[in-house]
Amino acid sequence: MKALIEKIQKLKSQKDAVILVHNYQKKEIQDIADILGDSLDLSRKAKGTSNPMIIFCGVRFMAETAKILSPDKKVLLPVFDAGCPMADMVTANDILDYKKEHPDVFVVSYVNTSAEVKAVSDICCTSANAVQIVKNIKARKILFVPDKNLGDFVKRRVPEKEIQLWDGYCIVHVRINKEHLKKMKKEHPEALVLVHPECESQIIELADEVTSTNGMVKFVKDSEKTEFIIATEEGMIDRLKKEAPDKIFYPASKPTLCRNMKKTGLEDVLRSFTCEQYEINLPDPIIRNAQAALNRMLEYSK
Ligand code: SF4
Prior knowledge:
The chain is of the alpha/beta class. It folds into three domains: about 1-80 and about 260-280, Rossmann fold, CATH 3.40.50; about 85-170 and about 285-300, Rossmann fold (3-Layer(aba) Sandwich), CATH 3.40.50.10800; about 175-250, NadA-like (Rossmann fold, 3-Layer(aba) Sandwich), CATH 3.40.50. Helices cover about 40% and strands about 15% of the residues. The chain is built from 14 helices and twelve strands. The protein has helices at about 1-15, 25-30, 40-50, 60-70, 90-100, 115-120, 130-135, 150-155, 180-185, 200-205, 215-220, 235-245, 265-275, 285-300; strands at about 15-20, 35, 55, 75, 105-110, 125, 140-145, 160-165, 190-195, 210, 225-230, 250. The strands form three sheets. Strands 2-1-3-4 form a four-stranded parallel beta sheet, with helices on both faces. Strands 6-5-7-8 form a four-stranded parallel beta sheet. The longest helix is centred in the C-terminal third of the chain and has 17 residues, at about 285-300. The radius of gyration is 19 Å and the shape is globular. Bound molecules: iron/sulfur cluster (SF4). The site of iron/sulfur cluster has 13 residues, from loops.
């Protein structure tokens, strides 16, 4: 493994590249990250970096987001079919059809969507800023796509808006089981429960804190408590252990593994560098329109 990492580091400096890694990636991939974070953090950093090449260890919509925000850079996704089932639950045509019937609706799309969906959306959001974005926009009638659970979480916190929810969901987060979480709470009465807002409302109701993955890192570091039950994709526990090695983490429920997020290995990253694959290419009009929705998000979540 050491030799593999050395080759990757050598190619990275030769090609002046930066490796962006999502919090749900395998530990070995998290360990080679230049920037490790959640979707919002990675979108901001992708925009800010000066390196001409970005290797994005995550799923396709994330690499597309990096390309949209940095169209002049070469953005590579190491595994071609690392996708997100939730992102596939809504298409650009679905939104255009909905808009035809509801011309006054304002479309808020979660960042977990394809570039084409972003391009027909009015604004994007992430789990870290969804409540803030919906509060800040002037429109009252909103279509929230694709995650009905995150949408419901936002709806409860911003009751003054009329929010229509799309019927999408994360196949990993809906697997988190309420009875198992209750059992974990009983077994670890001192532990605080941190829940990602992609979970169903019955899980959110049992939370001490509902937050994004980066929000979890901050919460754990700032907390005086030492034990935490984590309700999100299980790779997050590796990130938390790395950031707070003296604290103890329990998964709320198992298995909560995102197969797509775990497809990337060190060999894939090395191949991505040597063959410069798989490059993300998007048509200019898609980039322009999606960029407007993403830039609006970055502006509204400052
Ligand atoms: S954890 Fe859920 S939302 Fe995230 S990439 Fe996997 S399927 Fe998609």
